[in-house]
Amino acid sequence: MSHSSSVSPRTQSGRSSRPPPMHTQRRSRMRSFTSVLLVIVSFGAVALSPYLVFRDDFFARLIDRQTQTQAQAQAQSQISYEDQLADLRS
């Protein structure tokens, strides 16, 4: 195919040489900003998580609390069981 010298390749492909409308540029800029913000927040969360977990022995306190809760529940059920036995004996 031969190209005529008066028609530019950009015009031949169906695209105009005009810049995109302002709302398209604004939308594109907003998407870029949102993507960058999402990446920054994600990296911040990944970086901050170990600090929050390991400071003040978070896991140790969590395990202690769970152990205490289980011990209290077990003691409560033992008392309830003994009360039921006392009621049956009388």
Task: Describe the protein's architecture and organization.
- The chain has helices spanning 9-12, 22-54, 58-89.
- With 90 residues, it is mostly helical.
- The chain has one domain.
- The longest helix is centred in the middle third of the chain and has 33 residues, at 22-54.
List the helices and strands and how they pair.
Blueprint: H1 9-12, H2 22-54, H3 58-89
CA radius of gyration: 35 Å
Q: How far do the termini sit from each other?
A: 109 Å
Morphology: elongated
Instruction: Report the structural category.
Output: mainly alpha
Number of domains: 1
Largest sheet composition: none
Number of strands: 0
Low-confidence stretches: none
Strand content: under 5%
